[in-house]
Amino acid sequence: HLLEVLSPFQGDRAGMVSAIVGKYAKIQATPSEGQRKARANNVLIGMSQCGLLEKNGDDVTPNFTALAKELLALAGDEQANVRFARHLLENCHGLELVDVVGVIRARGEAVTLQAIRDELRARGFVVTEIEGNSAKIRQWIESTGAVDKGWNIKDDALHDLIGAAPSVLAKWNGL
The whole model's pTM is what? Predict the structure, then answer.
């Protein structure tokens, strides 16, 4: 839905920021205008980090990538979620996240955001204490049925999504 909202504002960062502020009540409720703009800009940064907006160095150029255009064309189709979840798994460390969850479970530990953060740090990722990206990625994968809220991976659904089961991925990571 966000791509549909932002589509008319491609090339216009201020327009995109205003559209985001206008769309989300949580951002609208932010006390100061500067904070509202900063939160909306964070949305644009997140979109660039997951391949939806072009990046020019550290600057986010408010133009859709080929992936964003593909997803926009699929708007309203269940395949849009599937396509984006597959992209997150294959191109945005989502498969590593699935492996992290498997490792945590194999150690007999509870799968918590803190455990995920700690394991990601052990693998060299820079993760802050307020990092929530793993939960956001899980939510997108969850929309396909390949994982649930408790990070329980559904092997068949994951296989259907990316063409490989977690056991194959674990062997691949072992190489």
Answer: 0.85
